[in-house]
Structure prediction request, 166 residues.
Amino acid sequence: MAERPRRPRWRTLVEGLIVVVLFLGVRAYMQRGMVSGMAPEIQGRLLSGAGASLSEMRGEPVIVHFWASWCGVCRREAGTIASLAREYPVLTVATRSGDAAAVRRYLAAEQVSFPVILDPGGEIASKYGVRALPTTFVLDAEGRIRFAETGYTTGIGLRVRRWLAD
Prediction:
């Protein structure tokens, strides 16, 4: 049998570097225009009927998660967000996902529970510069944005970012 020629090591390194540059470029493109610094206020009623205010959540890090019921990646990440919401302060924003009844049906179908503010027209998402879903912000105890992630983020990744924001 003929032996396959070995790929030069430099070629493997160059290809790896290209993949990293492409990944970082796509990430930067998806996050262009997102807010930084102090997080804009989010105020409203949760699906539960209770009032919610981001400024009242200060004192420890908070995770702010933008999602939509029609978003497949959001659906895969919903269990992670529900798990985090049982341990830490989390505020989620259902963007362009219908009325309260539709969002409740979605949460029941996915068998998840977390605090949800409705954003039917996307106004809250616009204040944050959210252009793709899911998007997650990790705020420090004073309400400053420390991390912003677009796309799927693992539970351990969000826990580490929250820990670093503390």
The helical segments are 9-30, 72-87, 100-110, 123-127, 155-165. The two ends are 60 Å apart (CA to CA). The domain at 9-165 is CATH 3.40.30.10 (Glutaredoxin). The chain has a mean pLDDT of 93.
